[in-house]
């Protein structure tokens, strides 16, 4: 990487389309992005920002993405300044029960009464907790802990930046398995676990589905699955099978209008599914195996 300020690709549109774009950026290794961020900027809209060393890389990425023609997009070179700090400053802390997510720019502002602060900075992997999906999972997890739930075997499926795995490791002080189909996510998860002092608990691997060696035949008392509605529905049989009797799954990455379909997919597999309050247009679900 050079010392020149990077070129930023901005794409803006409705939440569903923006999330699909961020998914393409996050899992396509040919995109060459230095960092990718996803932000809510209105009740129904989000924007994606991807940073590149050169304008040619940004243009090539834009040409390779698939998104509706009504989404706004443009490329611009950022000012010659500390753009990393500036980008991080755009991520305010997130409060979710006993968890408090923050970037390094807010390290001096951690409330004294928060038992589990989690340092997560924006980067190539997704799941910084700064929209209603990851936060929804943490709120549900906090409620389960409040009720005395203490799972022994925990999986963070599609771990992204490792927020949920780190939260579970901090709260439970036991080994947590985190998997993702993207090696970048695995690497970032391990780095974030180290930064948060839980590297001895968080084990992260690249795994594409439950046939992977790290997951095949295993059962879990708690599964976090913060992905997207369509892949969640496709994984419903495997997730259900991977739950131990009495086990729980926290499902997220679901737009409000998709919640009923996702719930039905898991209900048909025998889970009892409870929708949780919507957060900024996103619904998280809590499922339990008999």
Which characteristics define this entry?
290 residues, Alpha-Beta Plaits, globular, 7-stranded mixed sheet, single chain, Rossmann fold, alpha/beta, 4-stranded antiparallel sheet
Q: Could you explain the architecture of this structure?
A:
Helix 4 runs parallel beside helix 5 (163-172) and helix 7 (229-242) runs parallel beside helix 8. This protein has helices at residues 15-27, 55-64, 83-89, 132-146, 163-172, 183-195, 229-242, 259-267, and strands at residues 7-14, 35-40, 45-52, 72-77, 94-96, 99-102, 116-119, 154-157, 176-180, 202-206, 220-226, 243-255, 272-275, 282-288. The protein is α/β, with parallel strands linked by helices and 290 residues long. The strands form 3 sheets. It has a 7-stranded mixed beta sheet with strand order 10-9-8-11-12-14-13, with helices on both faces. The protein contains 8 helices and 14 strands. It folds into 2 domains: 7-82, RRM (RNA recognition motif) domain (Alpha-Beta Plaits), CATH 3.30.70; 123-288, Vaccinia Virus protein VP39 (Rossmann fold, 3-Layer(aba) Sandwich), CATH 3.40.50.150.
Unreliable spans are: none
Question: How many structural units, i.e. domains?
Answer: 2
Q: What does the largest sheet look like?
A: 7 strands, mixed
The pLDDT mean sits at 86
Strand content: 25-35%
